[in-house]
Specification:
- The structure is a single chain.
- By secondary structure, the protein is of the alpha/beta class.
- It folds into two domains: 14-32 and 284-383, Aspartate Aminotransferase, domain 1, CATH 3.90.1150; 42-281, Type I PLP-dependent aspartate aminotransferase-like (Major domain) (Aspartate Aminotransferase, domain 2, 3-Layer(aba) Sandwich).
- Helices cover 38% and strands 15% of the residues.
- It has helices at 14-25, 41-52, 65-79, 95-106, 123-129, 148-154, 177-187, 229-232, 247-260, 266-275, 280-283, 285-300, 328-339, 367-377; strands at 28-29, 89-92, 112-117, 133-138, 159-165, 193-197, 223-228, 241-244, 306-308, 315-319, 341-342, 344-345, 358-362.
- Strands 2-8-7-6-5-3-4 form a seven-stranded mixed beta sheet, sandwiched between helices. Strands 9-10-13-12 form a four-stranded antiparallel beta sheet. A two-stranded parallel ribbon has the order 1-11.
- Helix 4 (95-106) runs parallel beside helix 5 (123-129), helix 4 crosses helix 9 and helix 12 runs parallel beside helix 14.
- The longest helix has 16 residues, at 285-300.
- The chain binds pyridoxal-5'-phosphate (PLP).
- Pyridoxal-5'-phosphate (PLP) binds next to helix 4.
């Protein structure tokens, strides 16, 4: 017997490949998007407290009530609307699950789903496994803004959904209010749903702020907002996130969620329900990461790379096309093996592996690691 793969072209993700290579080579791992520093000890103590106090059995399918309520309060404070904790908020096992369950709730065989590229790698398989057809629309190549004319061209009578992501991985582009309005105009009076990946909602810089699609007067009716506590609070390994969507969409979402995982890890929900009572714990995140972005970008400017401005997320793109024709994958490998600094080649974020000679660094690392990385990157010329 040989099993015919449902995802024949998909292998091990580049994030795993590069992290493994970084560890084999003893390289500084600026590739995969996870923080290289610990979480707030208060949060860790809360998890200890709730595990010891016996909060270790299945949580309610939609999430514990206090966690859903505090998330609604946080959403009120940061985005100006209060989703109904009972009918519009679901706690899930990471944003990856939220995206998968949302796509599964809406996409039927033969439906087209628009993906803006470069895109995070979990979107495409979620669509394919549900029998959908991904339709790729490239972002503008200079700043990774959305070309709304191209999106309009891509919409057909079969379009069922669009997947969007702001602040954006890998580019750090952050949507302005106008972008939300442009999307609302395009899908008005059409049965097109939106899956909005907002995992970097608390990581924006300079004058930029995050506009959740859930707060938009029109888009909120059609949108699944997918968030991640792992990203915001430096605990990506805990795999806990949320989905906010209007009641009718949440009802369908929960039908999938309850058979994908049923519920999400109980003591961690209790810990977050208490931790989120202090707003400064998330309101302080942007300035924390802005410090890291500034520190890293300043150092990169002393290398031969060209720095592409990052306005959000914890990623920094750099281009090197002015230096060499080497492919981005080859450069990433050479940098890891010879300079001992790991990064991600941006071509992997495109279905057709388009290579614009851009690589991505994650700057959610200690300043010590960022400094060491910068120092090693001064020798870039030696490997080109
Ligand atoms: C854009 C984007 N969406 C979703 C995720 C996954 O989030 P989670 O770990 O909560 O599943 C990531 C993680 O890297 C991401 O970068």
């Amino acid at each position: 017997m040989s099993l015919r793969s449902k995802l024949p072209h998909i292998g091990t993700t580049i994030f795993t490949v590069m992290s493994q290579m970084a560890s084999e080579e003893g390289a500084i791992n600026l590739s995969q998007g996870f923080p290289g520093f610990g979480a707030d000890p208060v949060l860790l103590d809360l998890v200890g407290k709730y595990t010891r106090e016996g909060f270790n059995q299945y949580a309610p399918m939609a999430g514990i009530p206090s966690m859903r309520k505090i998330l609604s309060e946080k959403t009120q404070l940061t985005q100006g609307y209060f989703p109904d904790p009972d009918r519009e908020v679901t706690i899930v096992s990471g944003a990856t699950e939220a995206i998968f369950s949302a796509v599964s709730a809406i996409v039927r065989v033969g439906d087209e789903v628009i993906i803006l590229e470069p895109a995070y790698d979990s979107y495409e398989p979620a669509i394919l496994l549900n029998g959908g057809i991904p339709v790729y629309v490239p972002l503008n190549s200079t700043d990774f803004s959305v070309d709304w004319e191209q999106v309009e061209i891509a919409i057909s009578s079969k379009t069922r959904a669009i997947l969007v992501n702001s602040p954006h991985n890998p580019s750090g582009f952050v949507w302005a209010e106008n972008d939300l309005n442009a999307l609302a105009n395009l899908i008005r009076d059409r049965e097109i749903y939106v899956v909005s990946d907002e995992v970097y909602e608390h990581i924006t810089f300079d004058e930029k702020r995050h506009f959740s699609l859930g707060a938009h007067p029109e888009l909120k009716e059609k949108t699944f907002v997918c968030g991640s506590f792992g990203k915001t609070f430096h605990v990506t390994g805990w795999k806990i996130g949320y989905c906010i969507a209007p009641p009718a969409l949440t009802e369908e979402f929960r039908k999938i969620h309850q058979y994908v995982t049923f519920s999400t890890v109980t003591p961690i929900q209790y810990a977050f329900a208490e931790y989120l009572e202090v707003p400064d714990r998330y309101l302080s995140i942007p300035s924390f990461y802005q410090g890291k972005r500034d520190f890293f970008a300043k150092g990169l400017k002393e290398t031969l790379f060209e720095v592409i401005p990052s306005h959000g997320s914890f990623f920094q793109l750099v281009s090197y096309g002015h230096l060499s024709e080497i492919s981005d994958r080859e450069l990433a490998e050479k940098m890891t093996r010879k300079l001992k600094v790991a990064c991600i080649p941006v071509s992997v974020f495109y279905a057709n592996k388009k290579d614009d000679k851009i690589i991505r660094f994650c700057f959610a690392k200690t300043n010590e690691d960022l400094s060491k990385g910068i120092e090693r990157l001064q020798n870039l010329r030696s490997i080109l």
